[in-house]
What we know:
The structure holds two protein chains of two kinds.
Chain A: H1 2-25, E1 30-40, E2 46-56, E3 64-71, E4 79-83, E5 91-95, E6 102-104, H2 121-126
Chain B: H1 9-21, H2 50-84, H3 87-113, H4 124-152, H5 158-163, H6 166-184, H7 192-224, H8 237-257, H9 268-294, H10 318-326, E1 335-343, H11 355-369, E2 374-378, H12 381-392, H13 400-414, H14 416-422, E3 423-424, E4 427-434, H15 439-456, E5 460-464, H16 466-470, H17 473-505, E6 512-514, H18 516-523, H19 525-540, H20 552-576, H21 581-591, H22 594-607, H23 616-647, E7 648-650
Antiparallel strand pairs in B: 1-4, 1-5, 2-4, 3-4, 6-7
Helix pairs in contact in B: 1-2, 2-3, 2-4, 2-22, 3-4, 3-7, 4-6, 4-7, 4-20, 4-22, 6-7, 6-20, 8-21, 8-22, 8-23, 9-19, 9-23, 12-13, 13-14, 17-18, 17-20, 18-23, 19-20, 19-23, 20-21, 20-22, 20-23, 21-23, 22-23
Amino acid sequence: MLFFSRGVAAAQDARDMIKKSWDKFRAAKSEIEEAAIAVKYDDGRVEQKAYTRWIQFDPAGEDKVAIVFSAPANDRGLGLLTWRHKQGEDDQWLKLPSMKQVRRVSTSDQAKYFAGTDITYEDARQLIGERIDDFNYQIISVPTLSE
Amino acid sequence: MLLTVNYDEIRVFRRVTEFLENRKIPAWEWFLKTDITPSGEYASVMPSGWVIGRGLTDAALIADNLKLSTIGLILTGIAFYLSFLSIRQALIASSIVALCFFWARGSIGLADAAGFAMYERVYFLLVYTSIIVAGISFAERKFEFFNEAREQNPELSVAAVWRKTSPVNRIIGLTALIAILNFGTLYQIGVRGILEMGIFSALGVAYLLVLVLWFMPALHSLVCGDTSHAGIKKAPQAGLIWNRLLDNTAKGCCRLLDGNEYAPFRYKKPAVASIGIICVTLAIALVLIGSDIFYRHTGDFRFIQVHTMPLEFINNTIVDRASLFLNKEGNYGFDRMPILVMPKNASGDEPVADPAFIKRVDAFSERIRALPDAREVHSILGTIKVISRESYGLKLPAETQQAHDMLQTMEWDMGPLLKEQLWFNKGLVLGVSWLSNDSYRTGLLRDRILDLAVSEFTDLQVVPFSKIAVYPNADKYISEGKPLNVVTSQWILFVIFAVWIFIRNRKNNHAHRLDPIKTGLVINAPFVFATSAIVIVMAVLRVPLDQSTACITALAINAACDFGLYLVSDYDHALQEGSDMRQALHYSLGDKGKIILVDVVLNALCFAPLMTSSFIPVVRLGWVMIVMLLACGFGALVLMPALLPWCVKNQKV
């Protein structure tokens, strides 16, 4: 019984720590990031890609993250918008440069890679921050100073 | 079902089988598995395609090999018994053949461990068959010699009698050498399965040589001790009748060549008749072959068809039923042949996204679809057309950006593993489904596709690939390699026999001796006649030259040599003993010819079980081989002895 209580308390501590961490992260209203990545193919070819990422944090929890590629030339304008909802599933839309319509990314596609990178739709969604209700957190060990 | 590069057919087959049968199949059951039985929700599923077809062939092969080699071994034992009239000798001789089976089969594992990728394929059955053929010959000769020596030396121990059999070792060794060289020449055909069959058959003969010359006498001495010789008196009536029948047949052949013993010996008339028969048969065979090579018949007709019908290996199985359904007019076709299409003058990093290239490939696909035997052409173009229509209102992409975007989304949807099977940045793959039941017609379709590319789509580089695309090449190798292989075998035989007679002549100081060159030619007579006869049979009965029938000559040449070699040896022996041509003929054919008949009958009996095989080509091999053996027997017992007096030259003593 004592063990169980200690376990629940530890999990609560871990959850609080993560929550505080994300709260601090979301203290900024928005974030812009410029990224350059090199994609190496099996045949030795290397492709340079570049994108800009905008994150908008909403106090009500309706956060948005948009990724728009600027390089290479044929990927210019390729974009992905993720709209986080406080309740229910998040929405994701993909915009291809040559297409007028946007394409909705289904939940079943979350594990798939996009833009020829190692980034999955799920990874892009999690950039806004984890939904802490979706996870269980545990402190496995606490290192001492000597360690 | 698309598979990764370097997939393992057996593993895929087993996974699919367990999936469709809804159960884990125990290891022992794979040895007996000859079909797939889908159950539960998959009960109405029929797997198709060559990966499953070949997997099923391999699985059925194991069961078939076990069955046929066991039947062959039992028949060999019975045949040995009828010949030796001794259960003990028959059991020992059969166990030698069985032991050789294990050694030959074990050699696959040893070769694999040594880094040579060898497998038990369909034609490994021919290895067992050639072991039986050689095993019968070697054991038969060795025991025959032993029994004769024992009759002559009843006071000697078994071990001492065995020591007296060493003279027969030379002739057995010579037969083995010819067999090994013949199997060795099969590499000329250039088909991996036939090469492996040749290697393991040669190994099997080498193992037999060791086992028969040394192990069999040792085993017989140990098992038999010094028991008294049972002799003919205790033999069963059936055995006696059998021996008398063979003896009379041999004597009948002798009478055919020398009807009146009291008249002067005239060998020229039978010799001319013999040469006439051989020449006419050979001429007909050459006309048939030459006509196929130099004269283009109407349509696809050939006197000797060169093709393999792969589905014949899995006749009446679920995959065969799937093929019957899929190959019906209007249906999809049994399998797909992948064809890589790339632009010849490509520019940029992603030529596959060039709208002009996509348009050309689309036109190429339409033209392929209209070819005879082709059914469907599948590729990413189908999806590209759908996206083009839905997103841009176009039939095909008009801009590189549009094509690039489509390919990107398709890749993200299907993942990199699937994508790499369908296209890459320099080209895309067309999957052509077709009526796939015949390697010859598959080759025709493949060549028509290539001709189409050369004549109308010169801007495209077209490369058929995968095992299916290269499968028809085996036909080409067989049709080109087989005549060369037959001629090489003839040369080998001629040289070996001529040298053999030359060496034997050194000890002959009598008035008559055999001419090495003439004898070398004459010993080939049964094989020339039998090969020509089989060409005629194949043309008349529409038997195709495929991977199984291509091996027949190697098996037949060994049988024919075996028959002829002992007769010539006995003929020469009689001459060396001071006999004249007539006496030598009566000794070698009338007195000793029975053993050749025994050999013919035993070999034919051993090939008979092949006719119970579940593989149609193996069934065909069984009866064609029996016809070939009978022709070789006729050649060795009638045609060759008629010519032997022509080889005798007189010398001053």
